[in-house]
Amino acid sequence: MRGAYGGPRVLLRRLREVMAEPVTAQERLDRIVVLIANNMVAEVCSVYVLRGGGDLELFATEGLNRTAVHATMMRKGEGLVGLVADEAEPVNLSDAQSHPSFAYKPETGEEIYHSFLGVPILRSGNTLGVLVVQNKSHRTYSDEEIEALQTTAMVIAEMIASGELGGPEDPSLAGRRPSHAEGQPLSEGLGLGHVVLHEPRVVIKKLIAEDSAAELKRLEDALASLRTSLDKLIDQSEVARAGEHRDVLEAFRMFANDRGWGRRMQEAVLTGLTAEAAVERVQSDTRARMQRQTDPYLRERLHDLDDLANRLLRELVSPGKGMTAELTQLPENAIVVARSMGPAALLDYDRTRLRGLVLEEGSASSHVVIVARALGIAAVGQIANATGLVEGGDAIIVDGVSGDVHIRPTADVERSYIDKVRFRARKQEQYRALRDKPSKTKDGAEVALMLNAGLLVDLPHIVETGAAGIGLFRTELQFMVASSMPRTAAQQQLYRAVLDAADGKPVTFRTLDVGGDKILPYMRNEPEENPALGWRAIRLGLDRPALLRTQIRALLNAAGGRDLRIMFPMVASVSEFDEARALVRREHARLVRHGHPLPSSLQLGVMIEVPSLLFQLDEILARADFVSVGSNDLMQFLFAVDRGNARVSTRFDPLSPGFLRALQRIAQKAGETGTPVTLCGEIGSRPLEAMALIGVGYRSLSMSPASIGPVKAALLDVDAAELAAFVEPLLARSDGAHSIRAELKAFAAKRGLQVEP
Ligand code: PEP
Ligand code: MG
């Protein structure tokens, strides 16, 4: 059924006129509701705006009692208006009063209206309010009318989001109010700053079209150009350059050719919107659907469609730019907010301005998170609809310790975080002051504090922390952040840069530790039932010697004229080490034959991280030049707890007598044979655990850069002999206690040791 004044196109034309009138926002809204009521021949048209706390406030009405404006409040979920807000979907009823959600508000005088059409006022998938029309007669509103009302709701959404309705200072309007979300802490640190959307949203300035035919043509052209560039990307396999997965691009192509999507946008243009507004109008529906979708596969596809809509918007605003990400100038203290992103993309940002990362997805082992940790920026993941909750430039706080994200924080929250940041900075200052102090306990035991590293961005930490060297260089990180297999030359270049940065300090390179949770996107990998116990690390290296050989060659070449230390991960049997060592020797001999420069010394070591090696210690220590304990994996395999499964990973305490006895045995045996031993798992990064390790005999620990200061501060104040004497009887205990943590804490507290980082 058509409205009396010519339907949606006329409505939009009138809207444009009203928007141009020099009146206040409230007056404009009052005129808009009259306009809609007239256009749709409805007795009532009302606008409800979502306030902080979830109330829906009547902001304007034609037909209802005007004294109810700014007085009537509906809870989100209350009444039909609340239902629309909750479901973010239109509700169209010819007999509203018989609907179970109908709630009567006497002050409005709405008891006489039977039909009801309510549409959500949406922006980026967030509900900002509800727009309603009502009639006395039993009437079913047509699809065209629903469409027209949704389009008008878009215009009102812009008025709400711009702050003009409540005044820019009114923080309680839903879209702009402070909000808080709790996610998963992924990289430690605190980041205070302003939002930079990784996929910036295009700000649409003009919603209503002047010439619909021209807008249709713009839409068609933009779609066609998007399709062409997608085809090109896929055909030329430029996938790597774009940093995207082929299957995502394939999904894009499928949607770009989807008739339904194209048609919905065309229909929106035909109601009188500009091409951009039409894309956003349809995108808003997609986003609302996305938030309700629980099936992970379908959600993912809706995300793809949303991404594609963003690109189409970019294409409309800057033709030819749809598929190329734009790199904007970062503000000071940038907090990047993204649905998900690749590691290389994060490295593209100016790291001097980058303070934090917020992801809708992301887990501790995702590659972008590994990079965030290496860059030392706070990161939080699993924040649902993060990109929809913020606008570029919004103030935001990321707490990578607790997982909290504060969007547009209140002054109180901001102040408390500024204090926290100051406190951390003071601590850092204290740690920096320790940098050049010899790393010795009170009774003179030297404890070498080394770095765990893996990327170029880690290298400045050697100088910054005053570390004794790199105890673990995880070579797989270069492979994980790349979009294709790094060639020998690239590997060699990185290893050389590492040795240059170490400037004579020892560096221990670990050969590729891939497989398990470290998946290379470009390498075919067969799904395994238990990847942690599967075909990974040295197993893969020995079965595919070409890969290992290439890496060994790159290492030997990079270390010409310098000392080289290489160790092998996940060795479970002495014979594996023998085999790996033979491979290195063959490569070394080859260099000799060809007269290439040789490393001045070559030491080969083994990671002790598979429990079977605990029973081959004599044999392994007789062969290896050094050993390094991988306590992360050793703990995982000794206790049979998946280190990546949050449900069980903290179930057992590494400070348990059983685990510490195993570590003590390794240190003792290594000491007896004069084999240097380091521990390079995460436990060395925590001051209390580090004290226990010193107590059971370790004199070399390798850890994350941020831990060097706290661990050093603690060990400078401790007496190693006293620690050993304290720990020994606790390990000999037979009372079945599962941990000695409490005793160690009491020991530290009594001596005033700083063991909380
Ligand atoms: C370990 O297992 O303790 C270790 C240092 O190696 P990764 O964490 O890389 O497996
Ligand atoms: Mg390991």
TrEMBL record:
- Tell me its cofactors: Mg(2+)
What is the reaction catalyzed? L-histidyl-[protein] + phosphoenolpyruvate = N(pros)-phospho-L-histidyl-[protein] + pyruvate
Give this protein's Gene Ontology molecular function annotations. kinase activity; metal ion binding; phosphoenolpyruvate-protein phosphotransferase activity
- EC class, as a word, reads transferase
Which keywords label this protein?
A: Coiled coil, Cytoplasm, Kinase, Magnesium, Metal-binding, Phosphotransferase system, Pyruvate, Sugar transport, Transferase, Transport
Q: Name one GO biological process term.
A: phosphoenolpyruvate-dependent sugar phosphotransferase system
Q: What Enzyme Commission number(s) apply to this enzyme?
A: 2.7.3.9
Q: Which Gene3D superfamilies match?
A: 3.30.450.40, Phosphoenolpyruvate-binding domains, Phosphohistidine domain, PtsI, HPr-binding domain
Ranges where the record places region Disordered: 166-188
Residues in coiled coil: 209-236
Cellular compartment(s): Cytoplasm
PROSITE patterns, per this entry? PEP_ENZYMES_2 (PS00742)
- InterPro entries, per this entry? GAF, GAF-like_dom_sf, PEP-util_enz_mobile_dom, PEP-utilizing_PTS_enzyme, PEP_util_C, PEP_util_CS, Phosphohistidine_dom_sf, PTS_EI-like
Quote the cellular component terms of the Gene Ontology held in the record. Answer: cytoplasm
The GAF domain covers 24-170
Which PANTHER family is this protein grouped with? PHOSPHOENOLPYRUVATE-PROTEIN PHOSPHOTRANSFERASE
- Cite the NCBIfam families for this sequence: PTS_I_fam
Say which family it is in.
Belongs to the PEP-utilizing enzyme family.
The name under which this protein is listed is phosphoenolpyruvate--protein phosphotransferase
Species of the source: Hansschlegelia quercus
* Name of encoding gene: ptsP
